[in-house]
Amino acid sequence: MKYIVLDLEWNQSPRGKEDSVPHFPFEIIEIGAVKLNERMEPESEFQRLIRPQVYRQLHFKISEVTRMDIGELRQKGALFCDAIEDFLEWCGDEEFRFCTWGSMDLTELQRNMAYYRVDNPFPQPLLYYDVQKLYCLQYGDGSRKESLDQAVEEQEIEAERPFHRALCDARYTGKIMSLLDMDRYGVYVSVDYYRLPGSKEEEFCLYFPNYSKRVSRTYENREDIMKDKDMSDIVCLHCSRMLRKKIRWFPCGQKLYLCLGICPEHGYMRGKVRVKKSEYDAYYGIKTIKAATEEDRDALLQKREDMKKRRGGKKTT
Ligand SMILES: [Zn+2]
């Protein structure tokens, strides 16, 4: 399999968020990408400047960070539709996986494609490597996110090119990729949530060494998410046994449900459902199941108590 390391630069409404076009908060102004082979060696590169059609002035922050010039974009930039056509052709028919620093680029790419009504040829679910996440698993504490600039400095990669330009950042990200122990961390794929399962058949589950993740279809009402058995069931991570619940699902705020199951052989499993809103204001759930300890159980019981008190408190006022 090949890897396509992608980096985008985008602009936003120069007059701020309130003045944004719906479903088009960011307009892509540069695409940079590097294709890597199985050994993570660069094979070819892609770069296009894109002429802004929607936000025709650069937001001051964008010009500050990218040092791009609107005149240059107008003069040398391609139309998005032409640039994306070239890009998809460059990606080719061979199997590949996208790699990006952070989790935003593929969503913004697809948003821009949708805005310009370009057919979305990507597989569903769209799995990719979030190189920032993998970097932080291998070199960091697993949760604190580092910037690409920091990672490049830490790894003493020669920083001869400017940061925050698409192709340079893609090259740096590719170099970081080549340092990663993919035998160990390659299992940690990420999934892009721009396009979501529209039906039961499209729902999917991903299995990792220490947790599993299930993504539901979209619903009009958030309450419907937990009515589906596939969402509310807790299955053991190790033996796939259907588990009896030690703590039934309880809501924790508007966006979270928690529960605890117990496997007679493998102990506690904590279930968590995050309620999320899709691009078009539908709701979907992401369920994760993770092995838990007795301390986790106690913490969950405490949380349930706190939630009860809070709800009770509300009623009396
Ligand atoms: Zn089990």
Provide a quick synopsis of the model.
With 317 residues, the chain is of the alpha+beta class. The protein has helices at residues 60-66, 70-76, 80-91, 105-115, 131-139, 148-154, 166-179, 182-185, 229-232, 294-316; strands at residues 2-12, 26-36, 42-49, 96-100, 126-130, 190-192, 204-207, 211-215, 244-251, 256-263, 267-277, 283-291. It has 2 domains: 2-185, Nucleotidyltransferase, domain 5 (2-Layer Sandwich); 198-316, no CATH class.
Can you put this structure into words, describing what you see?
This protein is an alpha+beta fold and 317 residues long. The protein has two domains: 2-185, Ribonuclease H-like superfamily/Ribonuclease H (Nucleotidyltransferase, domain 5, 2-Layer Sandwich), CATH 3.30.420.10; 198-316, no CATH class. It has helices spanning 60-66, 70-76, 80-91, 105-115, 131-139, 148-154, 166-179, 182-185, 229-232, 294-316; strands spanning 2-12, 26-36, 42-49, 96-100, 126-130, 190-192, 204-207, 211-215, 244-251, 256-263, 267-277, 283-291. The strands form two sheets. It has a six-stranded mixed β-sheet. Strands 7-8-12-11-10-9 form a six-stranded antiparallel β-sheet, with helices on one face. It is globular and about 65 Å long. The structure holds zinc ion.
- Domain module tally: 2
Q: What is the share of helical residues?
A: 25-40%
In CATH's first tier, which class of the largest domain applies? Alpha Beta
What structural category do the secondary elements indicate?
A: alpha+beta
What shape does the CA trace take?
globular
Strand residues, percent? 25-35%
Cofactors, ions, other ligands? zinc ion
Q: How can the largest sheet be summarized?
A: 6 strands, mixed
Query: How far from one another are the termini?
Result: 60 Å
What's the CATH architecture of the largest domain? 2-Layer Sandwich
Question: Going by CATH, what is the homologous superfamily of the largest domain?
Answer: Ribonuclease H-like superfamily/Ribonuclease H
H and E string: EEEHHHEHEHHHHEEEHEEEEH
* Cα gyration radius (Å): 22 Å
Uncertain segments of ≥5 residues (pLDDT<50)? none
Q: How many helical elements?
A: 10
CATH topology of the largest domain: Nucleotidyltransferase, domain 5
The whole-number mean of residue pLDDT values reads 94
How many extended strands? 12
